[in-house]
Structures are given as structure tokens and as C-alpha cells.
Amino acid sequence: MERKELICIGCPMGCMMSVELEQGKVTAVTGNTCKRGDAYARKEVTDPTRIVTSTVKLRGGQYPVVSVKTSKDIPKDMIEACMKALKETEAKAPVEIGDVIVENVAGTGADVVATKTVL
Amino acid sequence: MKYDVMIIGAGVVGCAAARELSRYSLKIGVLEKEEDVCCGTSKANSGIVHAGFDAESGTLKAELNVEGNRILGELSRELDFPFYRNGSLVLCFREEDRPKLTELLRRGQTNGVKELRIIEKEELQKLEPMVSDEAVAALYAPDGGIVCPFGMTIALAENACQNGADFFFDKAVTNIEHTGRETGMGRYRIRAGEDVFEADYVVNAAGVYADVFHNMVSETKIHITPRRGSYCLLDKSRPSLVSHTVFQLPGAYGKGVLVTPTVHGNLMVGPTALDVEEKEGTNTTREELKELTQKAKKSIPGLPMNQVITSFAGLRAHEDGGEFIIGEVLDAKGFIDCAGIESPGLTSAPAIGKKVARLIAGQLHLTERKDFVPERKGILNPAMLKETDRSRLIQERPAYGTIVCRCEMITEGEIIDAINRPLGAKSLDGVKRRTRAGMGRCQSGFCSPRVMEILSRERKVPMEEITKSGGDSGVITGRNKDRL
Amino acid sequence: METYDIVVIGGGPAGLAAALSAKRKGVSRIIILERDRELGGILNQCIHNGFGLHTFQEELTGPEYAARFAAEVKREGIAFLLDTMVTDISPDKIVTAMNSREGLFHISAKAVILAMGCRERPRGALNIPGYRPAGIYSAGTAQRLVNIEGYMPGREVVILGSGDIGLIMARRMTLEGAKVKVVAELMPYSGGLKRNIVQCLEDYKIPLKLSHTVVDIQGKERVRGVTLAKVDQDRNPIPGTEETYSCDTLLLSCGLVPENELSRGIGVFMNPVTSGPVVNGRFQTSVAGVFACGNVLHVHDLVDFVSQEAAGAGESAAEYVLCGCSFKKEGADFQVKAQGGVRYTVPSSICSDGVRQQQTIRFRVGDVYKNHFIAVYLNGKRLIHKKRQIMAPGEMEELNFDMNWLSPYPDGGEIIVTLEEA
Predict the structure, then answer these.
(1) Half-sphere exposure of B6 (CA within 13 A, CB side)
(2) Among chain B residues, CA nearest to A56
(3) pLDDT of B127-145, one tens digit each?
(4) Which CATH number fits domain A53-114: 1.10.260.40, 2.170.150.70, 3.40.50.11540, 3.10.530.10?
(5) Which partner from A41, C85, C308, C328 sits 20 to 30 angstroms from B429, CA to CA?
């Protein structure tokens, strides 16, 4: 049996939760005050994911960079690979909100899209 | 390079000397170790134009203070920098201290300070309503004033430059050799790293470093202690809470601090006095900042110290003798000291400049140039224009319609002017000292990226090379992800 | 001189939402004056996600959230001027502004909505001793440099202040290739959201030191090190606990201050706790026809609440304009007072008007409170008694006050918002 400790991010309570795992499967969550904590804990210990937001270089634009995000959350351990991919990326102005800048970034299945329109 | 006069230090004294010397047909150089004028003691002081009652009668300090105060009005009009006679008050908190107040009055009168008088509590409260109830009387000097120390130094420097003086920045003098010693001549070789300059006269206006240079050429050693003074600057308030410069009579609580409005409408509190070893020791400490608050509240109990927007420290060049050392060094012909210039140094600077110039011109039997230009125009402040004139200015030069520093309401036009004029700003601090952009309540939080852009564009240097204050004070370290 | 029904000062989230709601209430001549190059205000540099959950039921980044409102403003045909600085507002609502195209100009307004936002507290206000080298930035300045200009302000970073901007910047700087060594927080608790502590610090193994502050800054030209020390209960550094971090950058995220220089110029009464204007339930300041909303009124944590609040201010301004510069059905006034752990309330007074059914009261607490009740008394009678598991200074609280409760009191009175132990 494996045990992981984590803080709930659902609200300012910040419950200290303890998750028990059996062969990678959650068997128990304790320390949470509400259901949200339980759900968060189960996801966070088995499949932690994050939306990544950053900038990419922009050629010929009003600003030298344009802000971007992943179109959906990606595995936490892929963040670094995602950033490395963005380092090599250069967009060309004009860019519209929602434009796909990188498809399937670092093989995560998520696209990187512009979050700002820059002329 | 050969100069008639080489001035070491582009602080207020060096610049005043350069300006006064430029009245004569002399090849003048100014060597400054920093990237700009007004980077040492001149940039971090009280900005006070002392009336002249503080220095002991008969001293150079007393003489030059009173003369400096007398000529500052005209100088500020000639050179277009802000100076006001707001009057100063020395508060007396205890009946038993009255003799000290009387002593100051007498001393001031002997020194030639005009209109000096002691006022009683009632009049004091009328003059300065925020003043402490504990103050029983005060010495009132209507001639006391305030000046912008940057404005004054930069004005002197620009005018000297206009009249032909050469300024060299980032040139720290490493050695001075009296090459004319054997022949009894004023002939010097000055090294600043790789650069070598020759000069007949050297004016030593090096502030806290003046002892180092003096001691390179003279057997009579002097010693300067950097005496640190910390200050707090408060946000502007309308109307100003304090209108006079309020000093404290030294008392049981030690040497007091002053509370004064600045020429730009802020309030300033300071200085502390702490002797330090380090000639660059301009750091503030928690203890000194705490001391400031306590002492300032003694004068003005209602001082809103939660309105402090910045604190800083400067170093006064205190020579062991406690007196200005101004004049030719006895065993080094042509080497002119301006050493130990602590308070009232800023007030005295114009007079010091004249004294140095008279000395050199006298020795060389020079008369003033006919083509000397005594006037200099400061950076145009559009806020001072009538509305119609301001609109016309913006029409002609749209940059005057774009506010860059929202706290001080400084336009892009003023910043461009500051960068492109003679001896123009090269850094964020250079822009700040010339225009006040970044000097307001947000302390450059909003405007620094914009000012950097303007600096980069006008000076045609990449953003990465923009500094806060020259040297290794780069503001940004690279581009996003460049180290990934 | 041009005349507008409503002049909105500031085109950030508050100004945009206020203008939109006023327009939708039927006011036609509205203009937004924005000092920056584009609409959206500070949201444009907040490129992280987490905005809009309340407003749009989806998670957006700051620029996306701003763009939605800006698009609506354009679709509604609301006028706006960019790069335009308001320099003065007179008590009779003549707005003086300036830009490089029109020069200095005046606009006469029937109503003015103050939506200038806030600024960061600078180093000086924090009394941090030490040298004054390059490399000390407010977190927001760094955020602008990185997110809009694409420049790194430093390589090795110490952050003072664990408010959300500080936490977000810890992650941004790390992702962009800087090493964030530590985040120090003066208080014994963080002012930021738990989510940000986990996802901005713990994800990147950045230590958070609570009850710590900066006691020295080293380096004369560029920052070379920062010394932290633990503080005691009175927030004074404890000698012997100093620890020096070598770094080239210090980011300060130590609180926001509403930007009310223009408001003071008009002469509106200010609340010393919020540093924002005193407003009534209609977001009207002490000067009739001058309204305030968003961070200029009190600093918010979530932009969604700014938008909500600003919409309320916009509606009120519209009502004022449409009623011929007054309000119909003025009822009795009730002062709203903050007591017992509640630092302030917005509004400071409410007035029954027979129209509005609900009045939102927003407030902040002064400390961390666990298992406490929020209690609301109207003329001594307790009307609300609501248990909260946790309340913290970093999280704005909200109450819905039923306006019908006011009807038994034609002479007005006072409403007290307080905390009570369980």
C-alpha cells in the first residue's frame, strides 16, 4: 500500500488530505471536508494535469510575443517538454485569439492556441 | 588629451566649478566615474538651501553658505531650475534650550543672514499648523529655501557643456601624478584606467573620494569619513502638510532630523548621521529608518509615515577638521581642493564654483569670455503651459500628448528631450533625475518598461543594454525561454 | 466641449463592464477613457488561466476574458479613446484628458464612473532596507516585461509576498527559465489562493517561508543577494534567523493600493481602510453622479466579482442619468458598519428605494477565522447568521441583504456586519 499527502486546492480551508493507493488505484481518501476534496485528491494522485500558459515569439507584430495556452490540460510531467517546444516556436502576426500555434504539443494531444489577438 | 583644467567629479561642486570656469577661455574637462552627472552625494541629500546660521562664524562654511544662498535666486533663473525660498524653522522643544536658539540667532546675524528672528509658539503654530505642540519657540529664517539637487547639478553641467566643457563619464580616476613637481609647475598626468589626461590645473571635487586624490599629490594628508544620511520621501499631498523646512534644535534626543517639502511637492524626512567606512555605503538600515520616523514625529506628530514612497541614503564627505577645504594645495601647485564638502555644500556650491574660478582665472590673469552664454533652458514642462499653448505643442509634437509616467504626469516628449539634450540621460535613473518619470508614488512600476522602450529607440541600443544607472545595473537579463 | 451622459475613467475589466451595463440600461452617450494602448487593463498581462468561472462558466486567461468584454463594448458601439490620460475631474464633472491626437481636451459628463484600478505597493512603502540596485521589481512590472514584452527581468529570483501575483510570477519565471529560490511572506498565512500555492509553488518545489521578510538587499549595481529573516508576532525580524540567498532579482508582491488621485481631486470622501471612495449601495460616492467600481473602490481577488460589481455601478449611473441626474424613490439611509474582525464593507451605506430587491455587501476579514459565523444586525436585530468554515484576509466575502428587511424602518438606522464565534 502506498500513501500520499496533499493539500486540497478547492477552497481556503486547504485540507491536509491523505490518499491510500493499492497498485496505482485509490482505495481511500481521508482528511477532506467535502466531496470536492475527494474528487480532487483522486485525480491529483493518479493523473495530475495542468493547463500551461506562456508566450511565443511573434514576428512582425505590435508586440514581440503573443500569449498562448494549451487547449486542454496536459500531464504535469509534460510541462517541461511543452515549454521546450514553445521555445522553438515563432508565430507570425497577425494572430487571432484561438489560432492554433502548435498542434499536438509534445505529443500530448493538446494544441497550443493564442489567447490574444495581436496585429 | 591635454586640458587647462581637469575637474574630478561631476557632482554639484564639480559642475559649478566647470560652469564658472567656462566663463574664461580655458579648455576644461570633467572626469566622472559614474555614467551621469549628479550620482554621488549630490543626488542624495536634503535639497535644502540653508540660510547660513548653522556654521560657525568666520569659517568658509559660513561665508560660502551665505554667499551661495544670496546668488542662488539669480542662478536658478539663469539656468532654469526650481528653487523656492520657503523659509526655515528651527524648533526649540524646551524652555531650558532657549539659550541655544539665541546663540543660533546671534551666529546667523554675525554670518550675515538677513531677517532672522525668534518666533514664539503662537506665531509658529500659525506659520506651520502641523508642528508639534511641544515646540515652545523657533528660529525663523525667511531666506531658507529648497532646491532640486538634480535639477541644479544638471543645469550647471549642461550650461558648462554649452560653453565648451568636455564631460567624460565612466572614467574613474585611478592615479594622479604631479609631473610638474620638480619644476614647480602645475602639470598633472591623470589616469582613468586606460585613459591618460594631462592638465595644468586639477580641481578635486571628488566628494567622499577627495581625500584619496588629495593624498596622491600632497604630503599634508587629509581624511574624509563618509557620513551616511538616510531619508524617507513621502507622497505628494494637496495642500502640502508642511510648508517650511522644519529643523530641530539639537537636544537631549541627539541631533535632530528635518522635515521639509521638496520643490516638487513631496515631503522629505531626514537625514540620520552615521559614520561608515565604505565610500559607496549608501544602503539603508532598519534602525536608521526607524530612527527617522521617531525623530520626525517629534517635529510633526501628524506626519503620515504610511505615505512613504521611497527611502534612500547618501554620504556626506566629512573631513576630520569639520571645515570645507577649498583652495590650492600648498605643496601641489595647480591642484585645487574642494574637499570636505558636507552640509551646507549644496547651498555653497555656486559660491565654491566662483571661488575656484576666480582663483584659477586670477593666477592666469584671464578676463571673462564675451561669448559666454549664462542662460540654459531646462526641459520643457508642458504642465506649466497655458492650455492653448499645450494643445498647440501636442499638435506640433504629439509625443507631448502621451503620458508615460502617470504618477508625475510626465510625457514622452519630456523623456525624449531628456535623452537627446547635451549630456542627455542614458539610463532609467538618468531619465528620472531629469524628468521625474519614475519618481512618483508607484516608483516606476508602471512606466519603467515604457521608458526603457523610449531609451532603446532614441539611443538606438537594444533593450538588453538599458541600465538602471549604468555599469552592471542592467534591467533585463535576456528573453523568455533563452535559458531553457 | 463635448458632452457625454457617462464618462468611464479606465478601460479595464471594471470600466468595460460598467459601460456595457449602462449602455444596456438605455444610456446612449457613453465614452471610456483608457490610458494604455488597448482595452482590458491589467488583464492583458495576466496570461494565466483561472478567470471567468463565474461570469462565463469556463476557465479563461486574462487576455481572453478582457477580449470578450472589449468585443461586447465594440459591438454595442460604445465610444472609447486609447492612450488617453485623464488629468483632472472637477466636482461639476468636467473631465480633462489628454492624448497625442486630440491634445488637451475637456468632456462634460452627467455621470462619471471611476474605474482606474490599483497599483502595487513599492519597496519604499514596505521600508525594506539595503542598497537600491537594479533587479528589484514589483511583481506586476516583471509580469508586464515577461508576458507582454517577452523579456526576462532576472535569472535567480527571490519573491517577497505570497499574494496571487507573487505566486503566479513564481511559476511564470520558472517556466520561462529562471530559478525562483524562495517566496517569503511576512504574515503567518499566505494571501494567495490554495490552488496557486499548490500549482505555482509546490509543482515547482519552490519553498514558501511564512512569517519571513527581507531585512537586507545586497549589490550596488545589480542585486546580488537578499537576506531574509523570520519575524515575531509583531512582525519584527528575529535576530539570528537571517538567511542570505544569492540572486539577481527581487520581486515584490506586497499588496495593491487603489489609485484614487483623481477621486481625491474631485473631493469624494475616502475610506481609510480600503483607500477607495466611500460609496452607497448604488456605488455612488459622496459626490452625486460620481460612481466607483472595481479595484479603485477596493482591491478584489477575482475579476469576475469586479465585473459583477461594475455592472451594478453602470446600472446605477444609467438610472441616475435617465432620471435627470437624480434617483427616484429615495428612501431612508442605513449606515453599514464593519465590526468584530470585519475590516470594511462595500457599500458603506444603503438606501431602500423600493426597486432593488437585493443588496450585495462585500467585505474582508482581518485575520484567519475558522468556524465563525457571519452575523448581520439591522438596528440591533440579527438578520443573518451564517457559518463559514474558514475566512481569510485574502478572500473577499459576500452577503446578500434582502432589501425588504429595511421596510419597517422609515427613519433608517444602522446595519452591522460582524463575526461571531461558534
Answers:
(1) 26
(2) B480
(3) 999 999 999 999 999 999 9
(4) 3.10.530.10
(5) C85
